[in-house]
Design a protein that fits this description.
Elements (H helix, E strand, L loop, with lengths): L2 H4 L4 H5 L1 H18 L4 H4 L6 H12 L5 H6 L1 H9 L6 H17 L6 H22 L28
Helix pairs in contact: 3-5, 3-8, 7-9, 8-9
Length: 160
């Protein structure tokens, strides 16, 4: 077996690359804008929002660093949540819609991938709620992007 054949694919590769990331965010945000709880939070998002989130997910899961290049990395994502005052109800609905969308667009449903995917979604949404209610950012500019893999916890951990 060659080293390439022995290489473990990234979550990004396993899920189908950028095409699947875009498909996920496009379908997901249609649901968000039709949801009575989430629509008020997202009604003023830019037309480019879905692409930014697709780039973020792609980068976190081992794809290209397009979000860092365009969106300011992890600190930029945290900054975008400041003052949004997200609640646990927002978080739970967001998670539900994203997982429903993952099923609908047929992201891989093997337990290993879904475990990693749901673990990241739980981790990321909990940080979003914490930072959206914080008075100031809890992250330094230049903080590296989280790197999510097969059973590997996210980095960096952000203290609440």
């Amino acid at each position: 077996m060659t080293p390439e054949q022995n290489r473990i694919p990234t979550l990004y590769e396993w899920m189908g690359g950028m095409e699947k990331c875009r498909q996920l965010t496009d379908a997901f945000y249609k649901k968000v804008l039709a949801d009575p709880l989430l629509e008020p939070v997202f009604r003023h998002m830019s037309a480019h929002h879905q692409q930014l989130v697709a780039n973020f997910i792609a980068e976190v899961f081992g794809g290209p660093a397009a979000y860092t290049a365009e969106g300011g990395g992890h600190a930029g994502m945290v900054q975008r949540h400041l003052g949004r005052h997200l609640t646990e109800q927002h978080r739970r609905q967001w998670v539900k819609l994203l997982i429903d969308t993952a099923d609908e667009i047929q992201l891989p449903d093997d337990p290993e991938f879904r475990s990693a995917f749901v673990a990241y979604v739980e981790w990321g949404t909990r940080i979003a709620v914490i930072t959206s209610n914080a008075e100031k950012p809890s992250i330094e500019p230049g903080t590296p992007m989280p790197e999510w893999g097969w059973g590997v916890p996210g980095k960096p951990y952000i203290e609440p």
